[in-house]
Amino acid sequence: MAVVGDVLSPKVYIGHHLNNLQLNLRTFTLVTKDDTPGNFWILNIDSIFFSVVLGCIFLAIFRIVAKSATSGVPNTLQTMVELVISFTDQNVRDIYHGSSKIIAPLALTIFVWVFLMNMMDILPIDLLPYIGEHCFLSLPALRVVPSADVNITLSMSLGVFILILFYSIKIKGFRGFSKELMLQPFKHPIFIPLNLLLEGVSLLSKPISLGLRLFGNMYAGELIFILIAGLLPWWSQWLLNVPWAIFHILIIFLQAFLFMVLTIVYLSMASEEH
């Protein structure tokens, strides 16, 4: 590695922060991305770990509030939870025109979970990697923003895609869903191959665009923090870090909101009979 004395060069520093902590399922050893390029049997265990932990935090907070909720003057935590629930419920009522008991809880889960994953980008860029490297298991790499990992965002969008297929078949029936793919937009049977191509691309573009949109925005935001930390002296970093962090909070909220809204829109489209 390019090291100047005991200090990493900017190139190595930036590259190090873009590496995931990975587990090789063939050998059950910890590796970095540079060691095993393109290997299918690799898990980004840092992304999986922080996703699960943040999901558990989300469930724990809402469970605590649900068990201690009062009809009197609510405390700050209960007020925040009630605002989030009211916000997601209103969006579901405005967008989803069908009848389903799962859409509102799904929208709430997506919004809060994605928001928490995005919020990890506000932590100091070297805090958790330093703790992982020097205080625990001498981890060779650690990325703490799960939504900046394309594997996580596409996995979530794949779950949404499965729900789209489920509701399309449940509401329209397998025959109705097939006719929708084969006879839209051109109704003549001779256009069935063209219709399948057009509708197939339209259908597949939904989960791909959903996952890549979240990944692209969060990866870019994370990369800017890394560039600031890697290219500027420590005493001047706050001049750019603070304004970017304030602006990035808006991006964090907006990306969680968009993922939730687009999920509701896609499921609403899948639930319509025509």
Verbal overview:
The protein has 274 residues and is mainly α. It has one domain. It contains 8 helices and 5 strands; from the N terminus they run E-E-H-E-E-E-H-H-H-H-H-H-H. The strands form 2 sheets. It has a 3-stranded antiparallel beta sheet with strand order 4-3-5. A two-stranded antiparallel sheet has the order 1-2. Strand 3 and strand 4 form a beta hairpin. Helix 4 packs antiparallel against helix 8. It starts with a strand and ends with a helix.
Distance N to C terminus: 59 Å
Report the biggest beta sheet as strand number plus sense, adding barrel if it closes: 3 strands, antiparallel
Q: What are the low-pLDDT stretches, counting only 5+ consecutive residues below 50?
A: 1-6
Spatial sequence of strands, sheet with the most strands:
4-3-5
Shape descriptor reads globular
Rounded Rg: 22 Å
Total DSSP helices: 8
Number of domains: 1
- The residue-averaged pLDDT reads 87
Percent strand equals: under 5%
Keywords: ATP synthesis, Cell membrane, CF(0), Hydrogen ion transport, Ion transport, Membrane, Transmembrane, Transmembrane helix, Transport
Family: Belongs to the ATPase A chain family.
Main location: membrane
Function: Key component of the proton channel; it plays a direct role in the translocation of protons across the membrane.
Q: What distinguishing features does this structure have?
A:
67% helix; single chain; disordered N terminus
